[in-house]
Amino acid sequence: MISHRDEVTQMILAAKVTKGIKWKDVAAEIGLSKEWTTAACLGQMALDKSQAELVGRLFDLPDEAVAWLQIAPYKGSLPTAVPTDPLIYRWYELVNVYGTTIKELIHEEFGDGIMSAIDFSMDIQREADPKGDRVNVVMSGKFLPYKTY
């Protein structure tokens, strides 16, 4: 019996390693971006029935796990307030260093509001560079102005 969505994530990760599956291949099967598909498989998005069944087949998940994939998740996957994983910590550092700059420039361009993480897309690509390959991340979120009432 599965008692928590995290157990399904662990089942997916174990099968990914055992079967040598790449996230981009899962995404191609589902027909969605590798970024969104990976987030869904890691427990941050809910899959619809057909998507969940496809993921279940790819990772040999039991029916109960497929059902868990369709439930709206509790979002936020970091185990600690300050992340300890080096790659995730660098994103935390990036927001600590540039967060106020990003906020200031968004407000200057759009006004008082936020960038949505709901109406959002992301693209992560390798960018060749003679001094060492670079990680190119493009994030696009709908601007949501604060309303007056």
The Cα radius of gyration reads 18 Å
Assess the beta-strand content as a share of residues. Answer: 15-25%
Q: How many strands, which pairing sense, and closed or not: the largest β-sheet?
A: 2 strands, antiparallel
Secondary structure: helix percent: 40-55%
| Integer average pLDDT | 95
Biggest sheet: strand arrangement: 1-2
Distance between the termini: 48 Å
- The CATH class of the largest domain is Mainly Alpha
Oligomerization status of the protein chains: single chain
Which structural class best describes the helix and strand composition?
alpha+beta
Separate helix tally: 6
Number of domains: 2
Output the CATH topology of the largest domain. Answer: 434 Repressor (Amino-terminal Domain)
Query: Any idea what the CATH superfamily of the largest domain is called?
Result: lambda repressor-like DNA-binding domains
